[in-house]
Amino acid sequence: MKIAADKWKHFFVGVVMGAVLQAFFSFLLDGAPGLPVLLALIFSSVVAYGFELVSKFTGKGHYDLGDAVATMFGAVPGIGVIVLIQVL
Fold it and tell me: Which of 1, 7, 23, 28 is the most exposed place for a label (fewest CB within 10 A)?
């Protein structure tokens, strides 16, 4: 199965977004073990789908739910990398 280049771009943006959000929420909520992960996942999904909705309603860009899904698939390993760094 071939994955379109556009989906890879969304995936890698998701990796960066997930890592940044995880680092931010971990810094903000120092001492809360699972809450930063949950918040990073929620905010990543809101931003990913929100960006697609903005594209749909403004007509600037192309609305594709698959792009939001690809971004979320990327956010998960981004969050995981930061969690691993924090644990080690």
Answer: 1
Summarize pLDDT for 9-27 with one digit per residue, the tens.
Answer: 999 999 999 999 999 999 9
Residues 6+ apart with CB under 8 A from 59: none
What domain range is 63 assigned to?
Answer: 5-87
Distance CA 33, CA 85 (A): 14
First-to-final CA distance of the chain: 36
Separation CA 86–CA 63 (nearest Å)? 36
**Among 10, 9, 22, 14, which residue's Cα sits nearest to residue 79?**
22
Verdict on whether the full-model pTM lies above 0.85: yes
